[in-house]
Amino acid sequence: MDKQKAVILLSGGLDSATCLAIAQSEGYDVYGVTFDYGQRHNIELDAAKRIADRAGIPLLTIRFDMRLWGGSALTSDEINVPHGEGGDHETAPVTYVPARNLIFLSFGVSYAETLGAKDIFIGVNSMDYSGYPDCRDAFVKAFQQTATLGTKAIDENWQFNIHAPLQYMKKSEIITRGMELGVDYSMTHSCYSPDPDGFPCEECDSCTLRIRAFAELGMRDPALRKR
Amino acid sequence: MDKQKAVILLSGGLDSATCLAIAQSEGYDVYGVTFDYGQRHNIELDAAKRIADRAGIPLLTIRFDMRLWGGSALTSDEINVPHGEGGDHETAPVTYVPARNLIFLSFGVSYAETLGAKDIFIGVNSMDYSGYPDCRDAFVKAFQQTATLGTKAIDENWQFNIHAPLQYMKKSEIITRGMELGVDYSMTHSCYSPDPDGFPCEECDSCTLRIRAFAELGMRDPALRKR
Predict the structure, then answer these.
(1) In a domain, A185, yes or no
(2) Contacts of residue B111 in chain A, CB cutoff 8 Å?
(3) Contacts of A3 (CB under 8 A, 6+ apart)
């Protein structure tokens, strides 16, 4: 029997790379999709491509420009990425991009429907990113229902499954799981404001979270510049 | 007091042009958004621009290419647009684009969040397009809830309102309402496969519906080629 197809949203970061390994470990025939949405740098797109290649999956790149309407430090030159703010937010930080996961998941559903896939994986996590409404379980569950109602699924009597296996894992648990599955974290890129050579700044929220999690495991983040 | 802002999804067609007029008649300060998504022709984008200009509203054009993953006669060169099939479908026709309105509405939400708008207008209609799951009321209602959960709305304790004022109107009722509001239907474009001069084919589902509705009102569709 053919393996069931699944779509995964790949950002090039640590979480989605782990999520991909989990999807493959569950036996899915995985199709990647990544987004060139006007983020400040293309390093994460290169990382997504490397990760997809290593996992042996195809990668669809969808391009659109969220800078046209702005609203986030990740897409606007007028808002600075904060440094050393730590990872705990109760309200959306300036790196929040309005409705980004809603848009990404919607494209994922369209691609999945065309492929004949019912399963979509997304590496969202509400432990580290509680300030991002579009990373929370309530959103993911509601989206799953909306996607089913808005596609052929509803007429054909099946439903989309949005898998968010990292939802309640701490960063160090995610890394541990990924290492068991052979993820090469040196290939991943999570930094919001990399240096001119493409290495992580080691100071932004995203860097701080990773570095701390690897340290908890007695390791140095393998994506950092060699010393 | 400043007028409340609203976002409208404009396709250049008859329905969204009417929906825009309704939004303005309700007193909203309307911001248009249209999509260049790899549809076969740009005539509808030109129509959207004309309609926005005439209504005196700004128009944001968001570009992405759904042909990359295909799946519809409207975006694929390999699937033909059917002629004279009539407007009544119980399952999705080949002109259905997977999750199109899910993607469009998601961009609308992102734009609205950046603008500080809570209201989004979409000219979907489930009388004529019952075969399109993403035009139905159940989908629109579920989307509204998902959008609220996935944005700052949930933390700020407000909700998005997705307005679909044409949902239960017949095409002839839509036209009657639009004419009361001064919509110039000669500017609108609805045809799936226009002729080389950009005039409607008069044979596709979309043309057939319009022509019939104007005929019921004792009129000739003003967008047709002059005879």
Answers:
(1) yes
(2) 69, 98
(3) A27, A28, A29
Q: Which of B90, B136, B149 to mutate to test the interface with A (most CBs of A within 10 A)?
A: B149
In a domain, B194, yes or no: no
What total number of domains does chain A contain?
1
* Residue B48 pLDDT > 90: yes
Rounded to a whole number, what is the distance in Å from the CA of A100 to chain B's nearest CA? 7
Cβ neighbours of residue B88 closer than 8 Å, sequence gap 6 or more: B130
**pTM of the full predicted structure?**
0.91
Spell out which residues of chain B touch residue A60, defining contact as CB-CB under 8 Å: 68-69
Best interface-test mutation with B: which of A69, A101, A148, A160 has the largest number of B CBs within 10 A? A69
- Which residues, 6 or more positions from B56, have their beta carbon under 8 angstroms from its beta carbon? none
Tokens of A136: 């929370």
**Best residue in A146, A152, A154, A162 to probe B by mutation, most B CBs within 10 Å?**
A146
B155-204 pLDDT, tens digit per residue, is: 999 999 999 999 999 999 999 999 999 999 999 999 988 998 889 999 98
| Sheet of A59-63, strand order | A59-63, A29-36, A5-9, A119-121, A161-163
CB pairs under 8 A between A and B: 149
What CATH number did the domain enclosing B86 receive?
Answer: 3.40.50.620
Residues B205-211, mean pLDDT to the nearest whole number: 92
Query: Any idea what the Cα angle at residue B105 is, between residues B99 and B110, rounded to 5°?
Result: 130
Model ipTM? 0.91
State the helix-helix crossing angle for A171-180 and A14-25, rounded to 10 degrees. 50
B109 within domain boundaries: yes
Inspect the interface and report whether the beta carbons of A150 and B101 lie closer than 8 Å: yes
The verdict on a CB contact (< 8 Å) between A110 and B99 is yes
Integer angstrom CA distances of residue A118 from A28, A52, B50, B131, B134: 11, 20, 40, 20, 17
pLDDT band at A83 (very low <50, low <70, confident <90, very high): low
List Cβ neighbours of A196 (8 Å cut-off, separation of 6 or more). none
Inside any domain, residue B14:
yes
Q: Do A110 and B92 touch (CB under 8 A)?
A: no
- Asked if the Cβ–Cβ distance from B114 to A69 is below 8 Å, we say yes
> CA-nearest residue of chain B to A69?
B111
Which structural domain, as residue segments, surrounds residue B140? 5-183
